[in-house]
UniProtKB/TrEMBL annotation:
Residues 153-180, 339-361 form the PLD phosphodiesterase domain. One of its GO terms (molecular function) is phosphatidyltransferase activity. It holds the Pfam family PLDc_2. This is PLD phosphodiesterase domain-containing protein.
Amino acid sequence: MIDATRTVALGPERLAGMFFVPGAPVLPPWIEPDPLPGPSAAGPIVHLATTGPDLNAPLRAALLDLIDRAEEKVFLASFLFADRAVTEALARKAERLRGGVYVLTALDRSFPMDVGEPEDDEPGKREQIDRNRRLQHFENLRTLAKAGAWLRSAADLHAKLCVVDDRVAFVTSANATDVAYQKNPENGLLVREPTLARELGRAFAQVFLHRFTHQSPPAADLDVKKLHPDPGPPWRPMVFRRPDTVVATIGRDESSLLYATLKLIDSARRELILTAFSAVDLREHPVGLALRAAVARGVRILAVFPPDNRRSDRRETGAWLFGDAPHGAVTVAGCPRTHAKAMIADESHTLVWTGNLDGRHGYQDGFEVGLATSRPDVASAVRDYVIVLALAASHRAVFNPTLDTLADAYGAPSPLAGDWTVVLPPGSLWSPAALVELLRSVPVTFTRRSSELVVRIGESAELIASVDVQRRTLRVERSSDRPSNGAPFDGYLRGCRLTVTGGGREMARPEKRRIGRRGRG
Protein backbone atom coordinates (compact mmCIF):
# COMPACT_ATOMS: atom_id res chain seq x y z
CA MET A 1 0.00 0.00 0.00
CA ILE A 2 1.33 3.41 -0.99
CA ASP A 3 1.65 5.98 1.78
CA ALA A 4 0.39 9.17 0.09
CA THR A 5 2.17 11.34 2.66
CA ARG A 6 5.54 9.85 1.69
CA THR A 7 5.12 9.19 -2.04
CA VAL A 8 4.81 11.63 -4.92
CA ALA A 9 4.43 11.07 -8.68
CA LEU A 10 6.16 13.54 -11.00
CA GLY A 11 4.22 13.29 -14.26
CA PRO A 12 2.18 15.19 -16.83
CA GLU A 13 0.49 17.64 -14.46
CA ARG A 14 0.00 21.22 -15.59
CA LEU A 15 2.13 23.85 -13.84
CA ALA A 16 0.61 27.18 -12.93
CA GLY A 17 2.70 30.24 -13.70
CA MET A 18 5.09 31.88 -16.15
CA PHE A 19 8.08 29.69 -16.96
CA PHE A 20 11.15 30.32 -19.10
CA VAL A 21 12.29 27.70 -21.60
CA PRO A 22 15.47 27.69 -23.72
CA GLY A 23 15.27 29.37 -27.10
CA ALA A 24 15.30 32.89 -28.38
CA PRO A 25 11.90 34.57 -28.25
CA VAL A 26 10.19 35.46 -31.51
CA LEU A 27 10.06 39.22 -31.37
CA PRO A 28 6.95 40.86 -32.78
CA PRO A 29 7.13 42.71 -36.12
CA TRP A 30 6.83 46.13 -34.48
CA ILE A 31 10.31 45.63 -32.96
CA GLU A 32 13.13 46.80 -35.21
CA PRO A 33 15.48 43.89 -35.98
CA ASP A 34 18.74 45.86 -35.81
CA PRO A 35 18.70 48.60 -33.17
CA LEU A 36 21.93 50.47 -32.62
CA PRO A 37 22.37 50.78 -28.86
CA GLY A 38 24.65 53.43 -27.49
CA PRO A 39 24.68 56.50 -25.30
CA SER A 40 21.94 59.01 -25.90
CA ALA A 41 22.92 62.32 -27.48
CA ALA A 42 25.24 64.54 -25.48
CA GLY A 43 22.43 66.42 -23.77
CA PRO A 44 21.86 67.00 -20.06
CA ILE A 45 20.76 63.35 -19.58
CA VAL A 46 22.82 60.49 -21.05
CA HIS A 47 21.87 56.81 -20.91
CA LEU A 48 24.79 54.46 -20.23
CA ALA A 49 24.49 50.69 -20.22
CA THR A 50 26.15 47.30 -20.56
CA THR A 51 24.62 44.28 -22.27
CA GLY A 52 26.70 41.60 -20.60
CA PRO A 53 30.30 40.78 -19.73
CA ASP A 54 32.36 43.92 -20.29
CA LEU A 55 35.82 44.21 -18.74
CA ASN A 56 35.89 47.91 -19.65
CA ALA A 57 33.06 48.46 -17.13
CA PRO A 58 31.68 51.74 -18.58
CA LEU A 59 29.32 52.30 -15.63
CA ARG A 60 32.20 52.08 -13.18
CA ALA A 61 34.27 54.36 -15.43
CA ALA A 62 31.50 56.99 -15.45
CA LEU A 63 31.22 56.83 -11.66
CA LEU A 64 35.00 57.11 -11.18
CA ASP A 65 35.10 60.12 -13.48
CA LEU A 66 32.32 61.78 -11.49
CA ILE A 67 34.13 61.22 -8.19
CA ASP A 68 37.42 62.46 -9.62
CA ARG A 69 35.82 65.75 -10.72
CA ALA A 70 34.35 66.55 -7.29
CA GLU A 71 35.51 69.87 -5.86
CA GLU A 72 33.33 70.15 -2.74
CA LYS A 73 31.40 66.98 -1.85
CA VAL A 74 30.32 63.53 -2.96
CA PHE A 75 27.08 61.77 -2.00
CA LEU A 76 27.07 58.06 -2.82
CA ALA A 77 24.46 55.39 -2.06
CA SER A 78 24.97 51.67 -2.64
CA PHE A 79 23.66 48.91 -0.39
CA LEU A 80 26.70 46.78 -1.12
CA PHE A 81 30.24 48.19 -1.35
CA ALA A 82 32.46 45.46 -2.75
CA ASP A 83 34.30 47.26 -5.58
CA ARG A 84 37.86 48.25 -4.74
CA ALA A 85 38.34 50.83 -7.51
CA VAL A 86 35.33 52.89 -6.37
CA THR A 87 36.48 52.60 -2.75
CA GLU A 88 39.95 53.88 -3.53
CA ALA A 89 38.60 56.78 -5.60
CA LEU A 90 36.31 57.85 -2.74
CA ALA A 91 39.11 57.48 -0.19
CA ARG A 92 41.44 59.69 -2.25
CA LYS A 93 38.70 62.28 -2.59
CA ALA A 94 37.90 62.24 1.14
CA GLU A 95 41.58 62.81 1.97
CA ARG A 96 41.88 65.60 -0.57
CA LEU A 97 38.70 67.36 0.56
CA ARG A 98 39.39 66.64 4.26
CA GLY A 99 35.95 65.10 4.45
CA GLY A 100 33.16 65.92 2.07
CA VAL A 101 32.40 62.28 1.22
CA TYR A 102 29.09 60.91 2.51
CA VAL A 103 28.12 57.29 1.90
CA LEU A 104 24.85 55.42 2.45
CA THR A 105 25.49 51.69 2.62
CA ALA A 106 24.89 48.59 4.76
CA LEU A 107 26.59 48.84 8.18
CA ASP A 108 24.71 46.19 10.16
CA ARG A 109 26.89 43.08 10.09
CA SER A 110 23.84 40.82 10.11
CA PHE A 111 22.55 42.07 6.76
CA PRO A 112 22.00 39.43 4.05
CA MET A 113 24.59 39.45 1.28
CA ASP A 114 22.26 38.20 -1.46
CA VAL A 115 20.99 41.53 -2.80
CA GLY A 116 19.37 40.12 -5.89
CA GLU A 117 22.29 40.01 -8.28
CA PRO A 118 22.42 36.86 -10.42
CA GLU A 119 24.72 34.25 -8.96
CA ASP A 120 27.92 32.95 -10.46
CA ASP A 121 27.57 29.69 -12.36
CA GLU A 122 29.38 27.49 -9.84
CA PRO A 123 26.97 25.25 -7.92
CA GLY A 124 27.49 25.17 -4.19
CA LYS A 125 29.60 28.33 -4.11
CA ARG A 126 26.92 30.66 -2.75
CA GLU A 127 28.10 30.66 0.87
CA GLN A 128 31.74 31.21 -0.09
CA ILE A 129 30.79 34.03 -2.45
CA ASP A 130 28.71 35.67 0.28
CA ARG A 131 31.50 35.29 2.83
CA ASN A 132 34.13 36.82 0.55
CA ARG A 133 31.79 39.62 -0.45
CA ARG A 134 31.04 40.44 3.19
CA LEU A 135 34.75 40.59 4.04
CA GLN A 136 35.42 42.84 1.05
CA HIS A 137 32.46 45.09 1.90
CA PHE A 138 33.63 45.79 5.45
CA GLU A 139 37.27 46.10 4.43
CA ASN A 140 36.24 48.78 1.94
CA LEU A 141 34.17 50.58 4.57
CA ARG A 142 37.15 50.51 6.93
CA THR A 143 39.26 52.13 4.22
CA LEU A 144 36.65 54.86 3.73
CA ALA A 145 36.29 55.55 7.46
CA LYS A 146 40.07 55.95 7.86
CA ALA A 147 40.16 58.32 4.87
CA GLY A 148 37.54 60.61 6.42
CA ALA A 149 34.29 59.51 4.77
CA TRP A 150 31.09 59.63 6.83
CA LEU A 151 29.17 56.36 6.63
CA ARG A 152 25.51 55.76 7.44
CA SER A 153 22.88 53.14 6.65
CA ALA A 154 19.10 53.23 6.40
CA ALA A 155 16.31 50.67 6.48
CA ASP A 156 15.54 49.10 3.08
CA LEU A 157 18.26 51.11 1.37
CA HIS A 158 18.19 50.10 -2.29
CA ALA A 159 19.10 53.27 -4.24
CA LYS A 160 22.29 53.30 -6.30
CA LEU A 161 23.14 56.97 -6.65
CA CYS A 162 26.03 59.41 -6.82
CA VAL A 163 25.71 63.21 -6.64
CA VAL A 164 28.76 65.47 -6.98
CA ASP A 165 28.80 69.14 -5.94
CA ASP A 166 25.04 69.43 -6.57
CA ARG A 167 26.00 69.77 -10.27
CA VAL A 168 26.10 66.28 -11.76
CA ALA A 169 24.65 62.93 -10.72
CA PHE A 170 24.49 59.27 -11.71
CA VAL A 171 21.46 57.04 -11.11
CA THR A 172 22.13 53.38 -11.86
CA SER A 173 20.86 49.84 -11.44
CA ALA A 174 24.37 48.65 -10.55
CA ASN A 175 25.48 47.91 -7.01
CA ALA A 176 29.08 48.89 -6.29
CA THR A 177 30.48 45.43 -7.09
CA ASP A 178 32.75 44.09 -9.79
CA VAL A 179 30.01 41.58 -10.72
CA ALA A 180 27.59 44.42 -11.42
CA TYR A 181 30.08 46.51 -13.35
CA GLN A 182 31.70 43.75 -15.41
CA LYS A 183 29.24 40.84 -15.76
CA ASN A 184 25.61 41.93 -15.63
CA PRO A 185 23.47 43.86 -18.10
CA GLU A 186 23.10 47.11 -16.12
CA ASN A 187 22.13 50.67 -16.99
CA GLY A 188 21.97 54.19 -15.64
CA LEU A 189 21.49 57.86 -16.38
CA LEU A 190 24.27 60.43 -16.19
CA VAL A 191 22.57 63.69 -15.20
CA ARG A 192 24.41 66.91 -16.05
CA GLU A 193 21.63 69.32 -15.14
CA PRO A 194 22.25 71.10 -11.77
CA THR A 195 18.53 71.47 -11.00
CA LEU A 196 18.04 67.70 -11.25
CA ALA A 197 21.31 66.94 -9.44
CA ARG A 198 20.23 69.15 -6.53
CA GLU A 199 16.92 67.29 -6.26
CA LEU A 200 18.73 63.96 -6.20
CA GLY A 201 21.08 65.37 -3.57
CA ARG A 202 18.09 66.56 -1.55
CA ALA A 203 16.65 63.03 -1.55
CA PHE A 204 20.01 61.61 -0.45
CA ALA A 205 20.34 64.22 2.32
CA GLN A 206 16.85 63.47 3.68
CA VAL A 207 17.80 59.84 4.18
CA PHE A 208 21.35 60.54 5.36
CA LEU A 209 20.26 63.15 7.92
CA HIS A 210 16.86 61.94 9.09
CA ARG A 211 16.23 58.29 8.21
CA PHE A 212 19.51 56.55 9.04
CA THR A 213 19.70 53.65 11.50
CA HIS A 214 23.47 53.15 11.93
CA GLN A 215 26.53 55.31 11.40
CA SER A 216 30.31 55.25 11.48
CA PRO A 217 31.80 58.79 11.52
CA PRO A 218 35.27 59.55 10.14
CA ALA A 219 37.72 57.79 12.47
CA ALA A 220 40.87 55.70 12.65
CA ASP A 221 38.76 52.61 12.13
CA LEU A 222 35.21 51.53 11.37
CA ASP A 223 33.06 52.28 14.44
CA VAL A 224 29.41 51.39 13.81
CA LYS A 225 26.78 52.56 16.28
CA LYS A 226 23.01 52.21 16.14
CA LEU A 227 21.26 55.57 16.48
CA HIS A 228 17.80 57.13 16.47
CA PRO A 229 17.90 60.27 14.30
CA ASP A 230 15.85 63.42 14.72
CA PRO A 231 12.93 63.30 12.22
CA GLY A 232 13.85 66.82 11.13
CA PRO A 233 11.66 69.43 9.44
CA PRO A 234 8.69 68.42 7.24
CA TRP A 235 9.76 66.99 3.89
CA ARG A 236 8.98 69.08 0.82
CA PRO A 237 7.67 66.63 -1.80
CA MET A 238 9.13 66.54 -5.28
CA VAL A 239 7.11 68.27 -8.00
CA PHE A 240 6.40 66.61 -11.34
CA ARG A 241 7.81 68.74 -14.18
CA ARG A 242 8.49 68.35 -17.88
CA PRO A 243 10.60 67.27 -19.59
CA ASP A 244 12.52 65.86 -16.59
CA THR A 245 11.54 64.96 -13.04
CA VAL A 246 13.51 63.37 -10.24
CA VAL A 247 11.36 60.72 -8.56
CA ALA A 248 11.92 58.72 -5.40
CA THR A 249 10.59 56.60 -2.62
CA ILE A 250 11.66 57.82 0.82
CA GLY A 251 9.67 55.78 3.29
CA ARG A 252 6.29 57.41 3.68
CA ASP A 253 7.66 60.90 3.01
CA GLU A 254 7.96 60.59 -0.76
CA SER A 255 6.10 58.37 -3.24
CA SER A 256 6.73 60.10 -6.56
CA LEU A 257 8.35 56.94 -7.95
CA LEU A 258 5.01 55.16 -7.70
CA TYR A 259 3.22 58.15 -9.23
CA ALA A 260 5.69 58.34 -12.14
CA THR A 261 5.43 54.59 -12.80
CA LEU A 262 1.63 54.71 -12.94
CA LYS A 263 1.66 57.87 -15.06
CA LEU A 264 3.99 56.31 -17.61
CA ILE A 265 2.03 53.04 -17.85
CA ASP A 266 -1.30 54.86 -18.09
CA SER A 267 0.08 57.10 -20.87
CA ALA A 268 0.93 54.14 -23.13
CA ARG A 269 -1.38 53.76 -26.13
CA ARG A 270 0.71 51.73 -28.59
CA GLU A 271 3.62 50.03 -26.84
CA LEU A 272 5.28 49.55 -23.49
CA ILE A 273 8.86 48.26 -23.30
CA LEU A 274 10.39 47.39 -19.95
CA THR A 275 13.16 45.54 -18.15
CA ALA A 276 13.71 44.77 -14.48
CA PHE A 277 15.34 42.17 -12.30
CA SER A 278 11.97 40.95 -11.08
CA ALA A 279 8.20 41.45 -11.07
CA VAL A 280 6.71 40.16 -7.81
CA ASP A 281 3.70 40.62 -5.52
CA LEU A 282 1.76 42.89 -7.88
CA ARG A 283 -1.72 41.37 -7.45
CA GLU A 284 -4.01 44.17 -6.31
CA HIS A 285 -1.03 46.55 -6.33
CA PRO A 286 -1.51 49.77 -8.35
CA VAL A 287 1.43 48.97 -10.65
CA GLY A 288 0.14 45.47 -11.38
CA LEU A 289 -3.37 46.73 -12.01
CA ALA A 290 -2.01 49.43 -14.35
CA LEU A 291 -0.04 46.86 -16.36
CA ARG A 292 -3.09 44.60 -16.63
CA ALA A 293 -5.17 47.59 -17.77
CA ALA A 294 -2.57 48.41 -20.44
CA VAL A 295 -2.80 44.87 -21.80
CA ALA A 296 -6.61 45.07 -21.76
CA ARG A 297 -6.68 48.28 -23.81
CA GLY A 298 -4.45 46.77 -26.50
CA VAL A 299 -0.99 48.11 -25.59
CA ARG A 300 1.74 45.87 -27.01
CA ILE A 301 4.33 44.88 -24.40
CA LEU A 302 7.92 43.70 -24.59
CA ALA A 303 9.36 42.72 -21.20
CA VAL A 304 12.88 41.46 -20.42
CA PHE A 305 13.67 39.64 -17.17
CA PRO A 306 16.38 37.19 -16.11
CA PRO A 307 15.11 33.62 -16.72
CA ASP A 308 14.28 32.18 -13.30
CA ASN A 309 11.79 29.35 -12.88
CA ARG A 310 12.40 28.49 -9.25
CA ARG A 311 10.90 31.48 -7.44
CA SER A 312 7.18 31.03 -7.06
CA ASP A 313 6.44 34.74 -6.60
CA ARG A 314 7.97 35.50 -10.01
CA ARG A 315 6.13 32.66 -11.74
CA GLU A 316 2.77 33.61 -10.21
CA THR A 317 3.13 37.36 -10.84
CA GLY A 318 4.27 36.90 -14.44
CA ALA A 319 1.30 34.67 -15.26
CA TRP A 320 -1.15 37.05 -13.58
CA LEU A 321 0.24 40.05 -15.45
CA PHE A 322 0.63 38.58 -18.93
CA GLY A 323 -0.82 35.07 -19.09
CA ASP A 324 -4.27 36.16 -20.28
CA ALA A 325 -3.02 38.52 -23.01
CA PRO A 326 -4.15 37.89 -26.61
CA HIS A 327 -1.70 35.93 -28.74
CA GLY A 328 1.17 38.16 -29.88
CA ALA A 329 0.24 41.07 -27.61
CA VAL A 330 2.94 40.37 -25.00
CA THR A 331 6.48 39.08 -25.49
CA VAL A 332 8.52 38.16 -22.41
CA ALA A 333 12.22 37.47 -23.04
CA GLY A 334 14.67 35.89 -20.61
CA CYS A 335 18.13 37.47 -20.78
CA PRO A 336 20.64 35.93 -18.34
CA ARG A 337 21.98 38.11 -15.52
CA THR A 338 19.75 41.06 -16.47
CA HIS A 339 19.76 43.60 -13.64
CA ALA A 340 18.87 46.77 -15.58
CA LYS A 341 15.72 48.78 -14.83
CA ALA A 342 13.85 50.85 -17.43
CA MET A 343 10.41 51.50 -18.85
CA ILE A 344 9.49 53.32 -22.10
CA ALA A 345 6.00 54.19 -23.34
CA ASP A 346 5.22 54.96 -27.00
CA GLU A 347 8.88 55.78 -27.80
CA SER A 348 8.53 59.07 -25.92
CA HIS A 349 8.24 58.75 -22.13
CA THR A 350 11.02 57.05 -20.15
CA LEU A 351 11.59 56.01 -16.56
CA VAL A 352 14.95 54.70 -15.34
CA TRP A 353 15.10 53.86 -11.65
CA THR A 354 16.90 51.77 -9.06
CA GLY A 355 14.13 49.40 -7.95
CA ASN A 356 12.03 46.66 -9.48
CA LEU A 357 8.40 45.90 -10.23
CA ASP A 358 7.97 44.89 -6.62
CA GLY A 359 4.74 45.21 -4.66
CA ARG A 360 6.53 44.58 -1.36
CA HIS A 361 9.52 46.90 -1.53
CA GLY A 362 10.37 50.14 -3.23
CA TYR A 363 7.08 51.87 -3.90
CA GLN A 364 5.81 52.43 -0.35
CA ASP A 365 8.93 51.98 1.75
CA GLY A 366 12.71 52.13 1.68
CA PHE A 367 14.88 54.43 -0.44
CA GLU A 368 14.76 54.31 -4.25
CA VAL A 369 15.45 57.01 -6.82
CA GLY A 370 14.86 57.48 -10.53
CA LEU A 371 14.34 59.94 -13.32
CA ALA A 372 11.26 60.34 -15.52
CA THR A 373 11.89 62.15 -18.80
CA SER A 374 10.14 62.85 -22.09
CA ARG A 375 13.33 63.68 -24.01
CA PRO A 376 13.20 61.86 -27.40
CA ASP A 377 16.93 61.07 -27.50
CA VAL A 378 16.80 59.39 -24.09
CA ALA A 379 13.65 57.43 -25.00
CA SER A 380 15.26 56.22 -28.22
CA ALA A 381 18.50 55.15 -26.51
CA VAL A 382 16.79 53.33 -23.65
CA ARG A 383 14.26 51.66 -25.97
CA ASP A 384 17.03 50.39 -28.26
CA TYR A 385 18.91 49.08 -25.24
CA VAL A 386 16.01 46.98 -23.97
CA ILE A 387 15.43 45.61 -27.47
CA VAL A 388 19.10 44.58 -27.65
CA LEU A 389 18.65 42.70 -24.38
CA ALA A 390 15.61 40.97 -25.90
CA LEU A 391 17.63 40.05 -28.99
CA ALA A 392 20.34 38.60 -26.72
CA ALA A 393 17.80 36.57 -24.76
CA SER A 394 18.48 32.86 -24.40
CA HIS A 395 15.00 32.01 -23.07
CA ARG A 396 11.38 32.77 -23.81
CA ALA A 397 8.40 32.74 -21.47
CA VAL A 398 5.56 30.22 -21.66
CA PHE A 399 2.44 30.29 -19.52
CA ASN A 400 0.93 27.39 -17.54
CA PRO A 401 2.82 24.60 -19.38
CA THR A 402 2.63 20.92 -18.52
CA LEU A 403 5.66 19.43 -16.80
CA ASP A 404 6.26 17.33 -19.91
CA THR A 405 6.30 20.46 -22.08
CA LEU A 406 8.78 22.13 -19.75
CA ALA A 407 11.00 19.06 -19.57
CA ASP A 408 10.94 18.58 -23.37
CA ALA A 409 12.01 22.18 -23.88
CA TYR A 410 15.16 21.59 -21.83
CA GLY A 411 15.87 18.41 -23.78
CA ALA A 412 17.68 16.39 -21.12
CA PRO A 413 15.97 13.05 -20.42
CA SER A 414 14.99 12.53 -16.81
CA PRO A 415 17.57 10.35 -15.02
CA LEU A 416 14.83 8.67 -12.98
CA ALA A 417 12.00 6.55 -14.41
CA GLY A 418 9.52 4.40 -12.57
CA ASP A 419 9.64 3.90 -8.80
CA TRP A 420 12.55 5.23 -6.74
CA THR A 421 13.25 5.56 -3.03
CA VAL A 422 14.76 8.74 -1.58
CA VAL A 423 16.60 8.08 1.72
CA LEU A 424 17.04 11.09 4.00
CA PRO A 425 19.92 11.12 6.51
CA PRO A 426 19.31 11.29 10.29
CA GLY A 427 18.67 14.85 11.42
CA SER A 428 17.44 15.90 7.98
CA LEU A 429 16.02 19.42 7.54
CA TRP A 430 12.79 17.78 6.37
CA SER A 431 10.63 14.87 7.40
CA PRO A 432 9.52 12.54 4.58
CA ALA A 433 6.01 14.04 4.62
CA ALA A 434 7.34 17.62 4.52
CA LEU A 435 9.70 16.86 1.64
CA VAL A 436 6.92 15.16 -0.34
CA GLU A 437 4.76 18.24 0.16
CA LEU A 438 7.55 20.38 -1.30
CA LEU A 439 8.01 17.97 -4.24
CA ARG A 440 4.30 18.25 -5.03
CA SER A 441 4.23 22.04 -4.98
CA VAL A 442 6.90 23.11 -7.50
CA PRO A 443 8.80 21.75 -10.51
CA VAL A 444 11.98 19.90 -9.60
CA THR A 445 15.23 20.33 -11.51
CA PHE A 446 18.21 18.00 -11.66
CA THR A 447 21.92 18.32 -12.39
CA ARG A 448 24.20 15.32 -12.95
CA ARG A 449 27.52 15.58 -11.16
CA SER A 450 29.68 12.43 -11.69
CA SER A 451 28.04 9.77 -9.49
CA GLU A 452 25.83 12.28 -7.71
CA LEU A 453 22.53 13.87 -8.60
CA VAL A 454 21.74 17.43 -7.48
CA VAL A 455 17.99 17.88 -7.03
CA ARG A 456 16.65 21.41 -6.52
CA ILE A 457 13.08 21.85 -5.33
CA GLY A 458 12.12 25.39 -6.28
CA GLU A 459 13.51 27.98 -3.89
CA SER A 460 13.08 25.69 -0.87
CA ALA A 461 15.47 22.76 -0.99
CA GLU A 462 18.62 21.36 -2.60
CA LEU A 463 19.49 17.68 -2.22
CA ILE A 464 22.80 16.13 -3.26
CA ALA A 465 22.34 12.37 -3.49
CA SER A 466 24.30 9.31 -4.52
CA VAL A 467 22.52 7.12 -7.07
CA ASP A 468 22.17 3.37 -6.62
CA VAL A 469 20.70 2.17 -9.92
CA GLN A 470 20.41 -1.50 -8.87
CA ARG A 471 18.39 -0.68 -5.75
CA ARG A 472 16.71 2.30 -7.47
CA THR A 473 17.63 4.46 -4.51
CA LEU A 474 18.74 8.08 -4.05
CA ARG A 475 20.66 8.40 -0.79
CA VAL A 476 20.80 12.07 0.26
CA GLU A 477 24.33 12.91 1.39
CA ARG A 478 23.99 16.68 1.80
CA SER A 479 21.10 19.11 1.74
CA SER A 480 20.35 22.81 2.06
CA ASP A 481 17.34 25.08 2.32
CA ARG A 482 19.19 27.68 0.19
CA PRO A 483 19.35 26.30 -3.37
CA SER A 484 21.86 27.78 -5.79
CA ASN A 485 19.19 29.72 -7.66
CA GLY A 486 21.54 31.01 -10.32
CA ALA A 487 23.31 27.74 -11.02
CA PRO A 488 22.62 25.97 -14.33
CA PHE A 489 20.70 22.70 -14.38
CA ASP A 490 20.29 19.86 -16.86
CA GLY A 491 16.52 19.50 -16.92
CA TYR A 492 13.33 18.67 -15.00
CA LEU A 493 12.44 15.45 -13.19
CA ARG A 494 9.38 13.67 -14.57
CA GLY A 495 8.01 10.21 -15.28
CA CYS A 496 8.91 8.87 -11.86
CA ARG A 497 7.39 8.13 -8.49
CA LEU A 498 9.47 8.96 -5.41
CA THR A 499 8.95 7.40 -2.00
CA VAL A 500 10.77 9.31 0.76
CA THR A 501 12.07 7.50 3.85
CA GLY A 502 14.52 8.09 6.70
CA GLY A 503 15.21 11.46 8.24
CA GLY A 504 14.98 10.31 11.86
CA ARG A 505 12.10 11.71 13.85
CA GLU A 506 9.20 13.39 12.09
CA MET A 507 9.71 17.14 11.91
CA ALA A 508 7.14 19.86 11.46
CA ARG A 509 6.63 21.14 7.95
CA PRO A 510 8.86 24.20 7.50
CA GLU A 511 7.02 27.44 6.95
CA LYS A 512 7.10 28.80 3.42
CA ARG A 513 9.92 31.29 3.43
CA ARG A 514 9.14 34.81 2.33
CA ILE A 515 11.80 36.51 0.27
CA GLY A 516 12.63 39.89 1.74
CA ARG A 517 15.86 41.55 0.73
CA ARG A 518 16.92 38.27 -0.86
CA GLY A 519 16.26 38.48 -4.56
CA ARG A 520 15.31 42.16 -4.67
CA GLY A 521 17.89 43.32 -7.13
